[in-house]
Amino acid sequence: MKNTTIAIIIASLLIIFAIVFTNGSSDKQSQSSNQEIQANNVSIKDGVQIIEIQAKGGYTPRKSVAKSGIPTILRFNTNGTFDCSSSVRIPSMKIFKSLPQSGTTDIDLGSQKVSTLDGICGMGMYPFEISFI
Q: Which end of the chain has fewer CB atoms < 10 Å from its terminal CB, N or C?
């Protein structure tokens, strides 16, 4: 009886440890992936910052981080986009753009101050944001 109780306690502890360890590592992997996506979609070329977002079934990435105080272009890439993400709204800048089904569309955002710029699709279903730091 004593050995069975000890075995049950050890098995329970191992199961709890496995659950905690698995959840913690997947959160770290998820955070790491998000950071990579955010870092990979912003580049600076000839003094102009370019933020690239894929538009199809929503916007990818949904959250981007960019530098404030430098000229910025928001570049939307489409490839067979037929849904509402083919029209983009940035209400705070009074921007509304229809995107082609396939191709690239640039929107000049100028030099942004430290802020968060919110955008959304034409129907209000798919949001995205750019944090200028």
A: N
* Residue 89: domain span: 41-132
The number of C-alpha atoms within 13 Å of 70 and in the hemisphere containing its C-beta is 16
C-alpha torsion angle, residues 115, 32, 59, 83 (rounded to 10) = -160
Domain count, the chain: 2
Whether residues 55 and 15 fall in one domain = no
Same domain, 35 and 52: no
CA distance 108 to 21: 45
Predicted confidence (pLDDT) per residue in 25-45, tens digit: 444 444 433 333 345 899 999
